[in-house]
Amino acid sequence: MNKSPFLHKNISILIHILVWALMGAFLFLLGPLSWKTTLPEEFWWRQIIFMLALVCLFYFNKDYLVPKLLFNKKLSFFIITSVGLCLLIMFVIEYFENSIHLPELMHKAFHPDDEKPFVQKDEFINVFILLVLFLGLGISTSVAAVQKWQTDEALRRQLDQQRINSELSYLKAQINPHFFFNTLNNIYSLTNIDVERARIALHKLSRMMRYVLYETEKDQTLLSKEIGFIKDFIELMRLRISDKVQVQLDIQEKVEDRVIAPMLLLPFVENCFKHGISSKQESIINIAIKVVENTLILETTNKIIPTNPNSPESHHKGIGMTNTQRRLSLLYAQRHTLQIDSENPEKEYRVILKINLA
């Protein structure tokens, strides 16, 4: 049984009690006790009533006036109601003081030897009472505003997380079939050339499928597994490419096991083989993967080979890359840089991806 909400609620109540106890002691107790005179009992009843009125005003404003009026853009009505409540409370306290003759009792307490008859001053506004009430009103309005901001921020984060999870699920669902569609086409083509090589390719594919089935169910996987998956993919591609294609690899052999989103690097590597090889001309593919301190660096370079407009791949060009860029923006919003250069004199497609894995 989770006791956290229960404990949190009770701690919150305890904090409220402690804050009011400190505030009450400061405003209504410490000052009078420092006056070094015997105060009448009626004075303390007045302090208690004033304190209770302040507490009621605080929570009524925080839980009702601010949410119902201020947050609903009824500013004028909120100000009129708030000021009216403060004036009403002030008049009620003044009426109570006069009904128990507190001004006269206080005068006698401070001037016990004064033989002159007490003359009460007629004050329409009690500035001290009004300032204290306005102070409580301002604090309660601030507390309500902060609580609303915290609630809205928590809701926004929850909605963002739900959106990210749903979008990532959708993006992975698009990327995985896209990858297997291309790979199965490669193996199908290989069966017409070399059955043994096709068998090896199927074995590697089955190992890769296990990675996809089990690792992509998680939000994160080990970097070593992701790099191993990329190596299997490259070896699978090597089985079908011609001797005119040179694959130059610079992949760090041993990496410290950090976590990374699964199948995040594949589309960049897959793109090299899908759009950077030709059966008619020499082509070179460069793939480098390394970790420098906390930063994963992927660099790929391949010649830009025009795609046959009638091929199925031409109609799905960019699906994997577009979705991967979207995943990067969701998962590593402020922790990655992606540079893609496809316009250069060498007519090469160059990618430099850096991800901070700290």
Automatic annotation (TrEMBL):
Keywords noted in UniProt: Kinase, Membrane, Transferase, Transmembrane, Transmembrane helix
Name used for this protein in its record: Histidine kinase
A Pfam family matched in the record: His_kinase
TM spans (from-to): 12-31, 43-60, 75-96, 124-146
Organism: Echinicola arenosa
GO molecular function: kinase activity
SUPFAM superfamilies recorded: ATPase domain of HSP90 chaperone/DNA topoisomerase II/histidine kinase
Residue ranges annotated for the Signal transduction histidine kinase internal region domain, each copy included: 167-244
